[in-house]
Amino acid sequence: MGATAVAPRSHTLRHRRLLLLTVLLGAVCVTVVLSVTVGSRPVPPADAWQALTAPAGTESHIIVRSLRVPRTVLGVLAGLALGVAGALMQGHTRNPLADPGLLGVTQGAAFAMVASIILLGAQSLLAYIWFGLAGALIASVGVFALGMVGGRGGPTPVTLALAGTAVSAFLYALTSAIVLLDEQAMDVFRFWQAGSIAARGPDVVWQVLPFVVAGLVLAMVNAPGLNALSLGEDVARGLGQRIGLTRGVGVAAVTLLTGAAVAACGSLAFVGLIVPHLARSLSGTDHRWLLPYSGLIGVALLLLADVIGRVVAPPGELEVGVVLALLGAPFFVALVRRRKPVRL
Amino acid sequence: MTTVLALRVAGLSWRVRPRAAAVTLGGLLLLGVLMALNMRIGDIQMSLAEVARATFDTASAGHFVIMDLRLPRALTGALVGAALALSGAIIQSIARNPLASPEILGVTTGASVAVVAGVVVSGSAYGGASGLLSTLGIPALALAGGLVGAMIVYTLAWRRGLDGYRLVLVGIGVAAVFTNVKFWLLTIGDVNDTSRAMVWISGSLNGRGWEHVRPVGVALAVLIPLALLGARSLDALRFGDDTITGLGVRMNLSRALLILAAVLLAAVATASAGPIAFVALAAPQIALRLARCAQPPLLSSAVVGALLTTGADLIARTAFSPVELPVGIVTAVLGAPYLIHLIWRART
Fold first, then answer.
1. Which chain B residues are Cβ-neighbours of A174 within 8 angstroms?
2. Does A173 touch chain B (CB under 8 A)?
3. Which helix (H) or strand (E) covers residue A76, if one does?
4. Pairing of strands B12-16, B5-9
5. Which of A98, A173, A328 comes nearest B332 by C-beta?
6. What is the rounded average pLDDT of the residues B221-248?
7. Each residue of A174-213: pLDDT tens digit?
8. Does the pLDDT of residue A169 top 80, yes or no?
9. What range defines the domain where residue B320 resides?
10. Quick one: average pLDDT of B86-112?
11. Which residues in chain B are contacts of A274 at CB distance < 8 A?
12. Single GO cellular component annotation (chain B) (predicted)?
């Protein structure tokens, strides 16, 4: 993108981007309202509003306050976290196959949770979320260290991606072995694996909130540096970027965001695989715009899928991860077919 | 610079890299040793000398055990590993992506969905996947699921020709659908059926006989020469599409044939032993680093894949004896640290 060619149009480009951002924000608001009102017991929007502002203790007010709101907030946090983390991950590895779990975050969390169930007898979700977070952090620090020494002078995209895949496969194998030998762990694991934001409660939201906020801040700080890095490491170095630092900040952001999301909601990491491709087709490759677009699309898709999962198979529910794949993936394939994909 | 020799037979010529050839030959020797070690294990433990005698002496007591039980199992492991690795090497070359594996062609994921659906739908609390279903039904389901999955990916990715990048993206999308349908099927099933399905989707060589060896053996015998012929255009495929056309390679044709070979190899291997994880991804990357090539070398990859699977089976049977782990779990435990070691060593 040459500066001279763009300069006359940059004003309209900025307008277009702001407009798109507003549209996406609107979509998020609509899905939030849907998420609070729709379910096996529908609550009219006015009633839901009353439940938030002047709770009267009626049944629908209790449902809204204790079930729907925590579920919606968790959906917003997870959607933001996974969308942004996915875009960062694909940017840093320059690989369209990279999902936010690529650094071993998802499998680290899964392994730690399953191990805590059989070794320490962890019973409640609240107990094993901490193990999940710890597992995610340890795994991704390990992968980053490995990628760091693997490449010359800093982790290169290929060594980072391969090291992450190798560590993930290793941890997944250990998890499978435990799960095959222990039926109780298997029972927890299969539901965690399918991914859900239901029945988590406000405690879980408060637990993961600080991690998501910190991760989002780091991600936005990382965006300009990542733009420079996508010109190639030599050019970035010439522009005065400290490559190791930029990569480190990016990896920290991905770890915090993904670790929090997968520990609370299970393996929804593929949200982060698909959403950035959708966002990139709207924003182009400028990460300062790509990251917010990814986050907002992540929220809208996740909440929409969750709402559909509640109504599509009464009286039960379909896990949000399943709905997302069935809904998002065909859309994604259609998009890929329709236009030339924006390359990383 | 690595040395490159040329092998010319009847007007065709291949480039032969001495280092890759050494990796292949050394790997084959090691493979023989590992297979012999693997055949010692069973209800009756044998020494290596006894294994050798029982294999070649038709009158000996152990001949039946070796020929009917242990040799087919060992061969299935080696051939399945070779087929998966070759499939992975082709796909990684075409997609120009070290993370690509038959999974993005929809083969292994399609097979997994078909089998899990079969087990969960037909499965009562016990015995659902036994008898006829397990010997005949599951391989057939896996083969059908794998081929249908690949067909879906290929059809969706084709648009005025085949673009490697678009293939990868479509592959991600389709794999996501299959994987999540699989997760969902695992949550609705009875926990006993789920455990049994988990064993299959982890990949297992338990109780494999000659009927599992034959399809993979035939597939390899036909497809390895085909892939080696195609390897000449694979070398060109790593350049951009415009360059390839300029070099005179008929891009779509050779790509389509190579993808077909990769799909068939992965589908047949998956039907025999389940989607053994990580071999298709790791073996080509390990072979590439051992042989110091730019592209995954096909034959060396196949040998490394066979080694990885056979070694993993050996560990799977002995580590927690008498409990036998599915081999697919151990391939990652064995292959991942080695791949990490190679990445680590490459810094110098």
1. 333
2. yes
3. helix A69-93
4. antiparallel
5. A173
6. 74
7. 888 888 777 777 777 777 777 777 767 777 788 888 889 9
8. yes
9. 40-345
10. 85
11. 172-173, 176
12. plasma membrane
A150 interaction partners in chain B (CB closer than 8 Å): 343-344, 346-347
Looking at the domain assignment, is residue B328 inside a domain? yes
Report the number of secondary-structure helices (H) and strands (E) in chain A.
15, 0
| Over residues B240-255, mean pLDDT | 69
Does some domain include residue B68? Answer: yes
Q: Residue B63 burial (CB < 10 Å; 0-12/13-18/19+)?
A: middle
Cβ separation A277–B169 shorter than 8 A = yes
Contact B332 A186 (CB under 8 A): no
- Return d(Cα B263, Cα B46) in angstroms, integer: 38
CA distance B64 to B213: 17
Q: What is the pLDDT of residues B176-185, one digit of tens each?
A: 788 888 888 8
- The dihedral region occupied by B96, where left means phi > 0, alpha psi between -120 and 50, and beta the remainder, is left
Looking at the complex, does the CB of residue A324 fall below 8 Å from at least one CB of chain B? yes
Between the two ends of chain B, the Cα-to-Cα distance in Å is 16
What average pLDDT does chain A have? 80
pLDDT per residue over B128-152, tens digit each? 445 555 556 777 888 889 899 999 9
ipTM metric: 0.70
A259: CATH: 1.10.3470.10
Chain A residues with CB under 8 Å of B346 CB are: 150, 159
CATH number at residue B127: 1.10.3470.10
Q: What's the domain count of chain A?
A: 1
Minimal C-alpha gap between B54 and chain A (Å): 34
